[in-house]
Specification:
The complex is a heterodimer of chains A (about 210) and B (about 400).
Chain A (H helix, E strand, L loop, with lengths): L14 E7 L9 H5 L4 E8 L12 H12 L4 E5 L9 E3 H9 L11 E6 L2 E10 L12 E8 L4 H11 L5 E9 L14 H13 L1
Parallel strand pairs in A: 1-8
Antiparallel strand pairs in A: 1-2, 2-7, 3-4, 3-5, 5-6, 6-7
Chain B lengths: L3 H10 L11 E5 L20 E7 L7 E7 L2 E3 L40 E7 L5 E8 L8 E4 L13 E5 L17 H17 L1 H4 L4 E4 L2 E6 L16 E7 L2 E10 L12 E5 L3 H4 L10 H31 L4 H36 L5 H31 L6
Antiparallel strand pairs in B: 1-8, 2-6, 2-8, 3-5, 3-7, 4-6, 9-10, 10-11, 11-12, 12-13
Helix pairs in contact in B: 2-5, 2-6, 2-7, 5-6, 5-7, 6-7
Classes of the chains: A alpha+beta (about 210), B alpha+beta (about 400).
Amino acid sequence: MSDRQADFVPGKGAVHIRFVSGNDGFWPIPEAVALAGLNYRFAVVQDSFVSDCGEMYFDEQLWLCLLGFIKKYGAEIKVIGLGFKRENEELPINEFIKSWNALNSEDKNPPWAMLVSEGNTLKISLVTEYWAEVGGPQPYSDSYTYSIYSEQDVAEKVLDYIKTSNTSERWSLDLPVITVPPNKVRMPRAKPDKLERFLSKLRGLWR
Amino acid sequence: MAQGQDYAAAMAQDMANFDPSEYPVIGELAGQGGVGNTLQGPATINDNDNGTLTADWADDSGSHHMRFTGQGFDVHSDGYSVWTSTGSKDSAHVPLTSYDDSAAALPDGAPGAAPVEVNETVDNSSKFSTLAINGNDGPITSLASIDTYNPADVQLNSPVAILQDFGPGDVQVATSSSPGNNTQAGAAAGTLGSKIATSRAAIMGRGPRVTLKGEEFNFSFYRPAGSRKPLTVPKSGKGYLFRPGEPNNQLRLDYHDFPPERGIEDTWHWNQRSVARIFGNGLDHSTVGATLAGGSVTALRLGGRLFIAYGLYQSYLAVKNSHNPGDEVKRQASGWAGATIGGEAGAELGAGIGGSVGFLFGGVGAVPGAAVGAFVGGIVGGVVGWQGGTWVYNRFSPPVPE
């Protein structure tokens, strides 16, 4: 946890949210998601730009809302990839929430993936795409994008859930849903490749 | 005292097949023409030995002029060419067909005497021009200060004068001690060092340090390691200042399209997270100064690549035109190694200074400031490093065998 003072106070501008349907394979997904055949992807794209807010804005409420949505699909929830230098760490949801609540708002970064299982079967997954850290193309540029991977199309259910949760009407929902063609050339990478692992080791030595 | 006829006799031995490359190089003068270009090392030519001083010109058109001073030798020429024309030493050269020692105006430099100055006008169309010299009463004590009336004439990337011994007699073969004074290649190699410094954060997570308001940041042209990234699409960040160990807490110079509803036409903009206390609030997605910064950063990135390519070309020319290509390859490699290391160090320093100075001109000025500082620092460090690298080579390389 950082002991720095908060750099900004979120303003009151609207948080723009777009929706994308389709598996374009831009971002890595956990191996378990690929193996479980969760082939439907519905992405909630939160624009990090919020007027009256000086910095890229992570909307914690939206992320918690989506967490609330996927929780309905199973009793066991596992959190993977807790942040920088902790890419491969895993935690049960309860432990993760405990540490999450202890963080300052500016230190909160959504984890890479949340896997929801029932019994031994993976039912649904919420995978974060950190476009806010790299820019990227439209419609994702500078966004926090949450991709929901599931066996069946859950787009309508997600939209309804978000609309119901948008009581303060701070979320500006940009509809209709954008459909992207599936990436047929390559599947999302499940694990860091050899080069990435090698570089990770190098970075460890460097530090 | 040896006479000019000795030289002529030596030349006459095999005039038709005269090939200077068969004769040992006993010293070189290198670098751009100008005062202070002194032959280094124990280049010695004894009484009755003969040699030539060959200038390597930048082009083969027009008249060239060569001026030097020295002691310990006679000069027997008024500027004829041993090699003529066509711009390449590999081209056919014309044997020495005339020898004119009547130019009594050419002074001799006796040991212990004050240095004499020789001015030569070399004929047109001579890429490589040669003056004949003859050992006087002892070693050449100070063949020095090669100069040209027009320094631009001088080939910059190879020795401007080669002293070769054509015998007869005993000659102490000296190690070529050219400092490899190749400023342009050094600067270009320094740019390579600068590129390494400003890119390594993408792998190692750390770049040149920039201290702003007492807080340390690292600069990088590329996405710092540790920030998460997509698999296949191009990343759009072009310049980063980030907190060490916290790559996602950053000021980023970014380039991409905006959603239509944003109403912003300019695609260069800033993104920031957890750094507003340093750079100011309200900067996120702002385009203030971003186009200028983006243009500067892009120019430096592309210009750096072109400059490196230019430096490689200069080194290639230096090797190609060298009288000892194998030796020159090693010298150039040493120069590049030294300049790259020097350039990286210079970029570290320059980015820190440039970032701090740029910060004074608006917080976001730190990004282009660091980029410019790294570039300039890299060039300066490269020139210094080149000297160091070639000095190390000259110091430890084995003597050229006789």
